[in-house]
Write a sequence for this structure.
């Protein structure tokens, strides 16, 4: 059984969606959640950033000893390779998935996180900074729109871990001051992904753990 150390943030939801999609046996454990107090040694052993998501796989598919992994993108790639699902071994599809996964991690996610932070969590309201990140947020949504006009899914005609990596971020579109009606291809993709059973379960898990940790 895979141990899944969960924090109710978009990265945690990504892993929950994939584990549910694969129907793998796993147990959920809190990580820096609410009043849970982990010794510093435990935190740094599991993740140098002291944050989830993290998995411990007691039986890697390579036959090696138990493996601890942190970071949503790393875990998604590992689970895809372990299961043989949602990322083809073929060169073209594999790298279509990886390039979108890296774009989501390195461009889209920081943009949206900054937009949400300066709009909702910063102690100082800085209109010029909010305007800057709003412009960048519109830009990444326009990039997604152009891609999804041409493709059924993020990395082409097949559902992949790139879609799983993207969904929890788009799920917060209202916090990003985005009207999805302005991006019909993105909205169509979002509505389709929202109906998947694994996504529905992962959203339920996220809601339950947010209540436990009192995260808005």
């Amino acid at each position: 059984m895979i141990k899944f150390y969960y924090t109710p943030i978009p990265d945690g939801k990504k892993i929950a969606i994939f584990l549910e999609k694969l129907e793998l046996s796993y147990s959920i454990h809190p990580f820096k959640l609410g009043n849970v107090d982990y010794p510093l040694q435990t935190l740094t052993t599991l993740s140098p950033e002291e944050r989830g998501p993290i998995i411990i796989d007691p039986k890697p598919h390579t036959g090696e000893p138990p493996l601890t992994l942190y970071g949503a993108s790393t875990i998604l790639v590992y689970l895809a390779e372990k299961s043989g699902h949602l990322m083809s071994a073929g060169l073209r599809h594999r790298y279509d998935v990886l390039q979108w996964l890296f774009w989501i991690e390195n461009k889209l996610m920081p943009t949206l996180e900054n937009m949400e932070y300066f709009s909702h969590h910063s102690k100082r309201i800085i209109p010029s900074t909010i305007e800057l990140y709003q412009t960048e947020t519109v830009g990444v949504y326009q990039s997604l729109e152009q891609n999804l006009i041409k493709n059924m899914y993020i990395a082409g005609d097949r559902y992949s871990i790139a879609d799983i990596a993207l969904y929890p971020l788009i799920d917060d579109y209202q916090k990003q001051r985005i009207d999805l009606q302005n991006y019909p291809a993105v909205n169509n993709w979002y509505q389709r992904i929202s109906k998947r059973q694994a996504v529905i379960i992962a959203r339920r898990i996220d809601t339950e753990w947010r209540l436990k940790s009192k995260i808005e």
User: Anything to note?
Assistant: The mean pLDDT is 89. The helical segments are 10-22, 40-46, 72-83, 91-121, 127-150, 161-170, 184-194, 197-213. Residues 14 and 164 are 6 Å apart (CA to CA).
